[in-house]
Structure to design on (618 residues):
């Protein structure tokens, strides 16, 4: 559908929130926890953080939880039986107050989870998820969304995007059918006003040409750059765990005596054990090969195979990195002509 | 049901366990659910995810031939956590199976050709599926030659089938063991697979070579095939990389942009030359 523009008074935000709550939806919003901001389930709008740039974790767990049960099993005298997931028990959820980069991240995740074979569990979670994003009116030195096809006011991936304007009101963009239903039910939105959105957004300069990153990364499998860039990488996997588009996973059984579940768990290509064979042979034996995989997966293999870039420029990996590897700087270097 | 849980395995009963070599077993498996059996078909070269509830999943090829209906077989060495748990299973036990996944050996394209199978150690199982598939369609192919080596005589798998192939007039079988791995009564060759291959020097004319073995065997076998005049398009292998999902999502089996689970596991040497060394 074509995006519809409305206005939402700041004082009506609670009305919107309560309307969603009233429908029994589980609402996930940024919450201040000590010195950090992270996504939590909230029951009142007052629990939501007032001033935040980004949460530490991305919003991906709303559709791709850290631990996802794939099915249950029981071993009894009669034999072994499996019990499929009941997808109807997945709750209706709302991501309330996420940033456009997080909303955009679901595009990459969907591309991975649904290429050729459809991941029904992921898809059902996404189907039951509504995304109400807030545009960014500030950014920090780690942000680079504008360099990877995003923007502080991008509507991609959101159902409704709210951009804070002056006079205690938001410019509301109703982007999808899902958003339209939410808006109608809430009765919180008013007629649109002539608001220039571009003036309300954070200034995030474009730092590199992503097409060049794709081209150069693709041509540079054997480059020394991967060694140079990853010398201080300790393979902790933090970057993957906070990334809104990292989807690599492990499958393990959790057993409780004669019954248990098969689980899908977050994993990371940065871990040395990720690719190791039982024989001990490891196709990615050194950390530089794992760093190359991380960058090339996002900027070469995904564009080639899935037609999406596996990065939304949120900068979380760099903020979380314990040895201060800054992906932004590395991508600027890769975008240069000679690498 | 069109939208099914792609991670949910079918249940299969182990109907036969064969001890092939120290720590190596073959399971013969049948579907417990009639629908599962009816909906299942595979082609040679494909693999599956086998699992023991509580222990987890593990990736093996389907070691039986699609021409042998009603069951599938897998052969594995107990080496890791899941294979060790699986190796304790007995006939009558139930395991999980998802598959088939991956591409195939294009045996239809090989009609009228000679076939040269070269395998090392525990890599005979994927080859055994193709061998039986081709032997069951024997009239489609000219000469069939098998070169198989293991570290020791005890490590040779499918000993009964080796004997059967040995006795077939329409199969040429060469078995070999690494130097020091022979027993006093050993009548086969002694020497590493590439050296034995070099010695028997099969003709490359109208011949497809299918190679499967540990990386070091493959590394030294390719130059011998090249010397014998085999074209890269006529040399096939099947790759192994660690896998979890089997359908290109879990992110670990890729070699460059190619997924072993989707674009492979079967590759020609020509294709292999286009891959980065990540396998």
């Amino acid at each position: 559908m074509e995006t519809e523009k409305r206005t939402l008074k700041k004082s009506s935000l609670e009305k919107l929130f309560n309307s969603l709550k009233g429908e029994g939806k589980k609402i996930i919003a940024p919450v201040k926890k000590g010195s950090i901001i992270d996504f939590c389930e909230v029951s009142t709008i007052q629990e939501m953080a007032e001033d935040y740039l980004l949460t530490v974790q991305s919003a991906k767990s709303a559709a791709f939880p850290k631990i996802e049960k794939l099915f249950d099993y029981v071993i009894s005298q009669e034999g072994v039986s499996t019990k499929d997931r009941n997808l109807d028990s997945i709750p209706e959820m709302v991501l309330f107050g996420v940033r456009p980069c997080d909303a955009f991240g679901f595009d990459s995740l969907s591309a991975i989870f649904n290429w050729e074979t459809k991941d029904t569990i992921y898809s059902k979670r996404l189907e039951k998820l509504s995304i109400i994003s807030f545009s960014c009116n500030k950014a920090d030195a780690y942000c680079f969304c504008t360099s990877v096809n995003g923007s502080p006011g991008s509507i991609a991936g959101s159902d409704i995007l709210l951009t804070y304007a002056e006079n205690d009101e938001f410019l509301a963009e109703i982007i999808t059918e899902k958003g339209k239903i939410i808006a109608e039910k809430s009765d919180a939105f008013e007629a649109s006003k002539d608001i220039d959105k571009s003036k309300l957004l954070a200034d995030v300069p474009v730092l590199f040409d992503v097409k060049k990153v794709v081209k150069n990364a693709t041509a540079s499998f054997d480059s020394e750059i991967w060694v140079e860039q990853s010398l201080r990488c300790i393979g902790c996997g933090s970057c993957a765990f906070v990334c809104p588009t990292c989807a690599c996973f492990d499958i393990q059984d959790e057993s409780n005596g004669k019954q248990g579940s098969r689980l899908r768990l977050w994993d990371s290509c940065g871990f040395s054990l990720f690719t190791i064979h039982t024989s001990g042979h490891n196709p990615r034996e050194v950390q530089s090969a794992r760093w190359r995989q991380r960058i090339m997966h996002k900027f070469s293999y995904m564009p080639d195979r899935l037609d999406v870039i596996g990065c939304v420029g949120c900068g979380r990996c760099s903020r979380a990195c314990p040895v201060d590897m800054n992906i932004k700087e590395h991508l600027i270097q890769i975008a240069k002509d000679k690498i | 049901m069109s939208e099914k849980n792609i991670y949910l395995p079918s249940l299969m009963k182990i109907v036969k366990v064969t001890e092939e070599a120290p720590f190596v077993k073959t399971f013969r498996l049948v579907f417990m659910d009639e629908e599962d059996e009816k909906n299942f078909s595979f082609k040679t070269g494909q693999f599956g995810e086998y699992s023991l509830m509580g222990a987890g999943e593990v990736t093996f090829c389907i070691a039986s031939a699609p021409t042998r209906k009603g069951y599938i077989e897998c052969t594995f060495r107990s080496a890791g956590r899941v294979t060790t748990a699986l190796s304790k299973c007995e006939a009558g036990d139930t395991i999980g199976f998802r598959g088939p996944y991956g591409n195939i050996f294009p045996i239809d394209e090989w009609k009228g050709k000679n076939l040269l199978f070269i395998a090392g150690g525990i890599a005979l199982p994927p080859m055994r599926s193709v061998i039986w598939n081709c032997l069951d369609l024997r009239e489609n192919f000219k000469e069939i030659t098998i070169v198989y080596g293991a570290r020791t005589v005890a490590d040779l798998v499918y000993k009964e089938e080796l004997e059967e192939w040995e006795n077939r007039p329409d199969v040429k079988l060469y078995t070999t063991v690494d130097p020091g791995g022979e027993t006093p009564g050993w009548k086969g060759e002694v020497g590493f697979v590439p050296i034995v291959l070099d010695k028997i020097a099969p003709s490359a004319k109208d011949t497809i070579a299918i190679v499967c073995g540990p990386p070091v065997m493959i590394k030294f076998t390719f130059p011998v095939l090249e010397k014998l005049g085999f074209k890269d398009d006529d040399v096939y292998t099947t790759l192994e990389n660690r896998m979890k999902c089997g359908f290109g999502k879990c992110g670990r089996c890729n070699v460059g942009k190619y997924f072993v689970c989707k674009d492979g596991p079967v590759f020609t040497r020509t294709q292999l030359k286009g891959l980065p060394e990540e396998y």
Summary: The longest helix of chain B spans residues 215-227.
